[in-house]
Design brief:
The chain is α/β, with parallel strands linked by helices. The protein contains 22 helices and five strands. The chain folds into three domains: 127 residues, HUPs (Rossmann fold, 3-Layer(aba) Sandwich), CATH 3.40.50; 122 residues, Serine Threonine Protein Phosphatase 5, Tetratricopeptide repeat; 173 residues, DNA Cyclobutane Dipyrimidine Photolyase, subunit A, domain 3 (Orthogonal Bundle). A five-stranded parallel β-sheet has the order 3-2-1-4-5, sandwiched between helices. Strand 4, helix 5 and strand 5 form a beta-alpha-beta unit.
Length: 479
Amino acid sequence: MTQLVWLRNDLRVEDNPALAAAYAGGEPVVAVYLVPVQTWQRHGVSPRKVDLIRRRLHHLCSELRQREVALRVIACDWFSDAGTVMLQLMRELGAQEVHANAELLLDEQRRDLKVARRLEGEGRRLVSHADGTLVRPGSVLTGAGDIYKVYTPFRRALLRKLLTDGVPAVTPSPRRGAANPHASSTIAEIDAAFAAVPQLSSQPWAASRSEIWQQLQHFADGPLHHYHQQRDLPAVAGTSQLSAAFTLGMLGMNETLDALLMRQPEPLALAEGGAASWLNELCWREFYRHLCALLPFLVMEKPFKPETARLPWRQGDDDFAAWCEGRTGFPIIDAAMIQLRDTGWMHNRLRMVVASFLTKHLLIDWRRGADFFMRHLIDGDFAANNGGWQWAASTGCDAAPYFRIFNPISQSERFDADGIFLRRQLPQLAALSNKAIHDPHGRAPLVAQRLGYPQPIVDLRLGRERALAAFSSLQEVGS
């Protein structure tokens, strides 16, 4: 009997529980990927992310074929069409079960429940497998049995759990099986399934398993050792650049942690250094995924701190447009937004700086910025994006006070002291001194005016005071 596996954000052969379970059920095995054209268009999925998915499926088709697993890529209209499409495919293939790795967000859980019910009507079933996190959401709890709502104690508890229970095992890859009678989608058929969805080139990003694995190996053997010193420097290639691979599940979390601990076994013991610092970033990802799985209102884009729903956000359409287009008059903000526009990616330190600027200095709703990011990021992950934006806006699960407001000029001076990143993204400012380039209109106003660099759209002091007043009003109401 044909075994079916439904691939979603788990586009890999290795360390894939659903694929392994399907293969264990017998042969032949068929994998299916659905392209919900209308849903992606309505939600504005990043065109570069769409292109990377398409390219990844090209490689995945070949990687699966080497193990005699066929891959079908099928276009449908809407997210909600999954049950109909899956049932038709199961009838065609004679499959009684479809294996899938569970997804954590509310809409995805509702979709899977509807699919399961649809299949049950014909005596078929959807079999769900744990994936996407190092441990099951809800398994890391406080002594009182509650979920952690602050990151640092969550991280400590997570690492203690991994030390006590052991690091989760990497799921073995399927061996090569017998010849598969089912045909895979051709490259042309895969491309046709994506034809109606807007795409922008994702070419600089690795899409084959060998390239992605080599990228992890290179990082673990080199930059990882200096990660704690270089991860905040946008001009330095000090990060792993694997965020898109994690978002699309091109790398499994278990195999990633396994590769890290093979080289640096001490990070689980709360050690210091590059490996521990990178593990900390993986823990942040885990934290936000757990929260979204356990607190569904976050998926509805509601603030973690309910009182902040009363914040008097400004409409500020002109300011928002200037922020989106990289013409705020603050070089570090503009350079970061140009990097996002041109590449579909932004350095993590800069994501915090531009988010703080939008939500604090401009007092514009964090949800507008989060949506803009998801429409442009090649590595856009809802949980991480939502968590990061709420952290910056002081509406989220953050122990820091609301008056943490990043000054874009001092951040620029601290993390791009020589202006290397600024000159790369804003070549019109290249001739300015290392001091003036961080604040052209404040330190070289005549030159900045001659170069046509935009005037700052907000006075930083006044913007900060406006934000403090807005948040202070919430404290007064609650007291």
